[in-house]
Write a structure and sequence with these properties.
By secondary structure, the chain is of the alpha+beta class. It has 2 domains: 222 residues, SGNH hydrolase (Rossmann fold); 133 residues, Sandwich (Jelly Rolls). Helix 2 packs across helix 9. The chain is globular, with a radius of gyration of 40 Å. The N terminus is likely disordered.
Length: 453
């Protein structure tokens, strides 16, 4: 009886265990495993378990940000050079017009750059010409902001000429050479040549005002070169720039301190007592390039400059017109000045003669007066300076106002400009020019005239 009881109990336990197994088989299956739960195939028949616990949801790992390439530290020489270039920037002035030119170039529109000045602008000291500051500045601007071949350039530098001649020839040497197109950016460089300017800044301001009043609202940059004597006229010229809010760059400010402390030598910067070396021209280019970079980084000002009735020195030379031997309605008689002088200077940029349409009187000719009749308030006369020239007398309305020695101004066939008359109001005048007593046996060449109505 005991055996039966034990066997019966064992049977009941086995039946209970079987029932539990069947119940487990009928449970609801769990959700499909996530990517993290799946085994990772290694490319072999082996399967490895996931590294992340299947019960924990994790974010995918982000790609690490590569470390920025460190900016190389500048050498002492580079720091010295950058400091020199930065010292050249006197002011960016009102930046509206210059930023407009930069935007125009970036947009792929045609942009025209002009430089007008003396022999430094013409390229004296740079070898070859393309290494002069003016041409290098054009190339730098085109590379910085142009889109291919949309930036163009004209060089109107003429050796030995001040702004009183620049204001006469601007239309001919800039606008006419651009086929009537007014430039978008004009660099004006007369701070050393204006030692020979007898208008004392009035013609300089007149040139600046004339450019600023062009219909296309061009940008004007004033550039102040320097002689080896460390002299220039930037104190005079910068007053004009400050009055109109113009960008101004001073080469004097850049190099003089370095020349004085010996970190830059005269032999490095100057080719002679007046002109920069090729390296000096490169420095000038970098100074202008720094201006462009600085203006480009600035916020554009709200209002453009205005050129109205107010001025710093004078507005008398705002609109000067040139007279050459084609102006037969003004020149009523050439008198004894019947020839054309071909022994005159040429322009390095395009190898054209400076003033080929001149009037020349041969030595020993008759002494008949050269006569003009015109209405003007100011009249400038440009003649050839040469050691073989004599003296002419200039009469205005029958009155002797000036005796001009043709050998003054250097005497190397360069153009030299003097003021014949300068009045507040315009009036009709008769001008007569003839050889002075004692100079009839000498020659004299009248190169051109400029008048303001």
């Amino acid at each position: 009886m005991r055996k039966c009881t034990w066997a019966l109990a064992l049977l009941l336990v086995m039946m209970l265990l079987a029932a539990c197994g069947e119940e487990k088989k009928t449970e609801t299956p769990s959700a499909a495993p996530t990517t993290a739960d799946r085994a990772v195939t290694t490319g072999t028949d082996e399967t490895t378990a996931p590294t992340t616990d299947a019960s924990v949801t994790t974010e995918p790992e982000s790609t690490p940000t590569p470390e920025a390439t460190p900016t190389p530290e500048l050498t002492e020489e580079e720091k010295w050079y950058n400091s020199m270039i930065q010292d050249s920037l006197m002011t960016t002035g009102n930046n509206v017009r210059l930023k407009n030119v930069i935007e125009k170039a970036r947009a792929g529109e045609e942009v025209y750059i002009a430089a007008i000045g003396g022999s430094i602008t013409e390229g004296e000291g740079a070898k070859p010409y393309e290494n002069c500051y003016a041409y290098q500045t054009y190339e730098a601007f085109a590379e910085m902001f142009g889109t291919g071949d949309n930036v163009h350039f004209i060089n109107a530098g003429v050796s030995g000429t001040p702004s009183s001649l620049g204001v006469i020839r601007y239309q001919r040497d800039v606008v006419d050479k651009l086929s009537g197109i007014e430039p978008d950016l004009v660099i004006v460089e007369f701070a050393v040549n204006d030692a020979d300017d007898l208008t004392n800044g009035k013609a300089y301001e007149g040139l600046v005002r004339h450019i600023l009043k062009q219909e296309n609202d061009p940008a004007v940059v004033l550039l102040f070169s320097v002689f080896q004597s460390q002299w220039n006229l930037q104190d005079r010229c910068s007053k004009v720039g400050a009055f109109y809010g113009l960008p101004m760059v001073s080469i004097k400010n850049a190099v003089v301190d370095r020349l004085n402390d010996g970190s830059l030598t005269n032999a490095q910067f100057f080719n002679d007592i007046y002109h920069p070396t090729t390296y000096g021209h490169a420095i000038m280019k970098d100074c202008l390039k720094y201006l462009f970079e600085t203006v480009d980084a600035e916020e554009k000002m709200a209002d453009d400059i205005t050129v109205g009735e107010y001025f710093w020195y004078s507005d008398i030379y705002d609109n000067v017109q040139m007279i050459d031997n084609t102006n037969t309605e003004i020149v009523t008689s050439v008198g004894s000045f019947t020839g054309t002088d071909k022994n005159i200077g040429s322009v390095r940029y395009d190898n054209t003669q400076t003033f080929p349409l001149n009037w020349s009187r041969a030595a020993g000719s008759d002494n008949e007066a050269f006569t003009m009749k015109l209405t003007c308030k100011a009249l400038l006369m440009t003649y050839k300076s040469t050691g073989s020239a004599g003296i002419v007398e200039v009469y205005v309305d029958g009155e002797l106002v000036k005796s001009v020695d043709g050998s003054q101004g250097g005497g190397w066939n360069n153009p030299y400009t003097v003021v014949v008359l300068e009045n507040k109001k315009s009036a009709e005048h008769t001008i007569e020019i003839k050889m002075a007593e004692g100079s009839v046996d000498k020659m004299f060449t009248l190169m051109t005239f400029g008048y303001a109505e």
